[in-house]
Amino acid sequence: MAAIVSVENLRKVYDSGFEALKGVDLEIREGEILALLGPNGAGKTTLISTICGITRPTSGRVTVAGHDVVTDYRASRRLIGLVPQEITLEPFTKVMVAARFTRGLFGKAPDDAYIERLLRQLSLWDKREAMTKELSGGMKRRVLIAKALAHQPRILFLDEPTAGVDVDLRKSMWEVVEALRADGVTIILTTHYIEEAEAIADRIAVINGGRILLVEEKDRLMRRMGRKELTIELQCPIDAIPETLAAFELVRGEDGQTLTYSYDRAAERTGIVTLLSALSEAGLVLRDLQTRQNSLEDIFVGLVREEA
């Protein structure tokens, strides 16, 4: 799949001397959903702002469909829709007018039929004559998405799109995202709800301290770094793990009633059969067994801790 956004050795140093981006290299494929994950202050918003032409890079190069974001700003920006973290709307503007106006800003001819389809898709059609100040926080965020899509961009940036949005609205927003992907729109999202990224992203990029730590297919990442845990509930609590079980690196629960064994689910041999035999030889009687698979959040937290 060809790259629609290319970031090469991108650096951003602010006047204060703070280096927000430290030689970032990233290629975003056309038609994919890329989840950009990182802790607060990692450089996510600066990277997005630079790609969108809002922030000027200190050095390096960014192109959008071959257009340089500095020297060919208008052509690159015309291809991008941006939904920012902050809700910034003119309070006395009606929803329909806001979408029409943004479309016009990008030089697009009026198309009320498209705007209607867009507002219906976002469940905003019934609110088309309402002023934005009358809307709930979740509906305001939908208006931001409508404005970002009004000029029919090929790339959509969603910076924390579901922050402060209730569960029902979050679910319907992701349905909209899936529909956009089906139409060939490239989507880059940041989110604190990592389970959302795990559910919908094609690839995961992790940024921390202004550097990209990892860019990988989500499914491959989960296979490569995902581990499973086997929790063993004992019939009777123990004060310490028998020395004969030391090789399994078991973790004893605070109550002494459980033992946790971590293993690589992709390994040819997990060691579980050997462990169960060793438990029996040690005189430990099992009451129950449960397994748990590492989530993307577990992997993300582990990566960030390693880098800290």
From TrEMBL:
Taxonomy, superkingdom: Bacteria
SUPFAM superfamilies assigned: P-loop containing nucleoside triphosphate hydrolases
SMART domains with a match to the protein in the record: AAA
GO molecular function per UniProt: ATP binding; ATP hydrolysis activity
Keywords carried by this UniProt record: ATP-binding, Nucleotide-binding, Transport
InterPro entries noted in UniProt: AAA+_ATPase (IPR003593), ABC_transporter-like_ATP-bd (IPR003439), ABC_transporter-like_CS (IPR017871), ABC_transporter_ATP-binding (IPR050763), P-loop_NTPase (IPR027417)
Residues spanning the signal sequence: none
Cross-referenced CDD domains: ABC_DR_subfamily_A
ABC transporter domain span: 5-234
Name assigned to this protein: ABC-2 type transport system ATP-binding protein
